[in-house]
Design brief:
Blueprint: H1 7-10, H2 26-29, H3 55-66, H4 74-81, H5 85-97, E1 101-103, E2 109-111, H6 113-122, H7 124-142, E3 145-152, E4 155-162, E5 177-179, H8 184-191, H9 195-201, H10 209-218, E6 221-224, E7 231-239, E8 245-254, H11 255-258, H12 262-287
Antiparallel strand pairs: 1-2, 3-4, 3-8, 4-5, 6-7, 7-8
Helix pairs in contact: 3-4, 3-5, 4-5, 7-12, 8-10
């Protein structure tokens, strides 16, 4: 196959310009058209749909739209898109390289994990807008620094925070990438993962499957000196529609204040904060449905 690392080259040499399919991925090349909500098919890119004038992108989106309703073989992609078989194959393999498509156990093409990542990123601004005032309240109620974490591959990233204004505190700068193998937020982000992904995440972790079972049973996690000596934390999930865990909300501080059983002090406040963020997100999503 021609140059599998570049989608434009892989599609027969047609070049994409501007932000399309570079840097942040496909989203930039869509000029603001979302991959969620009404769905890929609504973009009018299947079969005889109207094109954008950027042929290579239209063809790629028509292939994605063809698998929106379920797995498809190469022959089914050809039939659905009306593209030539060699062209369809080059596009599908290139999209697979970029994780926009993947294959099931039968070798059929299905939507890949990058689609979910882009959809998640599209909702990031709303999550942060909803979460920040609640993080501020959580900090004020507990007297400890509060953070919001999202999982990105094998790390968890602090996407929002409200720092304790004075005294000894645990400071986690926004944008910090922390390991998924330690800390109460890592436990929360892993506890509700599907079985195989959860077990992969436990490799090298400082907690066990039994620990995660306890997190699911209680609805919150706690750690003391697990990620960093002298630091304790409590975390709870932030859930979207269908109960999907979108993020982990935490408070953290010195063990001297939080003790080695920080959940006894702050679990109720942290769980309530996570539930409130989830409620607001789901309500907002319902208003825009």
């Amino acid at each position: 196959m021609d140059n599998p690392n570049g989608l434009g080259d892989a599609l027969g040499g047609s070049a994409l310009t501007g932000s399309a399919l570079t840097g942040g991925g496909l989203a930039g090349g869509l000029g603001g058209a979302g991959l969620s909500g009404a769905g890929l098919g609504s973009l009018g890119l299947g079969g005889a749909g109207l094109g954008s004038g950027v042929g290579v992108l239209d063809k790629a989106l028509s292939v994605l739209a063809a698998v929106e309703s379920g797995p498809a073989t190469l022959a089914q992609l050809v039939a659905a898109t009306g593209l030539a078989r060699p062209t369809t194959h080059r596009i599908a393999v290139a999209l697979e390289h970029h994780r926009l498509l993947t294959r099931d156990v039968q070798g059929r093409f299905v939507l890949g994990p990058r689609i979910a990542e882009l959809a998640s990123a599209a909702g990031e601004d709303r999550l942060l807008a909803v979460a920040q005032p609640i993080l501020n309240q959580l900090r004020d109620v507990t007297g400890e620094s509060a953070q919001l974490y999202r999982r990105q591959a094998d790390v968890r990233v602090c996407v929002a925070a409200a720092e304790r204004s004075s005294g000894l505190r645990d400071t986690v700068p926004i944008g910090s990438a922390l390991p998924m193998i330690a800390g109460s937020a890592a436990q929360v982000l892993l506890a509700w993962e599907e079985g195989e992904r959860m077990h992969r995440g436990l490799r090298g972790a400082r907690f066990t499957a039994t620990t995660l079972a306890g997190v699911r049973r209680r609805g919150w996690a706690a750690s003391a000196a697990e990620r960093e000596a002298g630091v304790a934390s409590v975390s709870a999930p932030v859930r979207g529609h269908g109960g999907k865990v979108l993020a982990a909300i935490s408070v953290s501080g010195p063990i001297e204040r939080l003790t080695r059983s920080p959940g006894r002090l702050h679990s109720a406040a942290v769980v309530a904060a996570g539930e409130r963020i989830g409620e607001l997100l789901r309500a907002d999503s319902g208003h825009h449905a």
